Amino acid sequence: MAQRQEDIAMKILISIFAVSAFLNFAQARGGGGGFEIGVHGGMLTTNQKDMDTLKNRANTREGGISTGDLGTAFEFAASAGYRFSGTIYEMLLRPTYMFHTEEGTDNSGAKFEYGVTGFTIFPIFRFFPLESDILKLFFQIGIGFGHANGHIQEDTFDIEFSGNDLGYLVGLGIEICFTDFHCMSLEGNVRQLSFDRVLADKVSGTPGGAPIGISQATVGQEVEMDGRDMFVTMSGFQALLGYVMHF
Q1: What is the spatial distance between Cα 174 and Cα 63, in angstroms, rounded to a whole number?
Q2: Is the pTM of this model over 0.85?
Q3: How many other CB atoms are there within 10 angstroms of residue 201's CB atom?
Q4: pLDDT value, residue 1
Q5: Which of 133, 153, 166, 206 is most buried, with most CB under 10 Å away?
Q6: Are 31 and 131 in contact (CB under 8 A)?
């Protein structure tokens, strides 16, 4: 985990240096000011390692289940921002919604489902180091809040849990404008937003036996596996395609 955070921090520094390298050129151009709104959709490549471990243990315990590993999540976003006139700077507010679920059955038809959904709200500071009337290149940095809801069902055992935390992102992208008002955007971000502690909101049934899955499942307390807090994440590489309207 520490190595991963160091890698992300290095990406942030590289982006800042890249912005600085283009700063004189960008300030000379200085874009027009105004508001924008946008809608975006895409994917988040993330790693729900603890939930995949629980799924694999259930697969061994039950003699085979059809549930797959949690892979790429889907994410939808909206945005509202303001570009400061005569500068390269823009401020955005972006809420997002993520969902990430796999479900299947065992040989007897019992349901096995694992999933995480959640939302984020990120203020984002954006730079435009290079731009023309048609094409705009931008870098961005954001710090924000995330809330995750998780669900695990293993036959008659069912648990819902949730957690909150702060995170950050760094990324770059382009806008391709067809008119002064209508543009398409494509961006890639690295987001760090993990939940080392989630609380059980609803529990029914009893966790399965050996190889053990959830080791603590009590409403209002931390959800644990192997005697430690279960790890849930909304971190990863985010790719978004969107429509932006300037006015």
Answers
A1: 49
A2: no
A3: 15
A4: 52
A5: 153
A6: yes
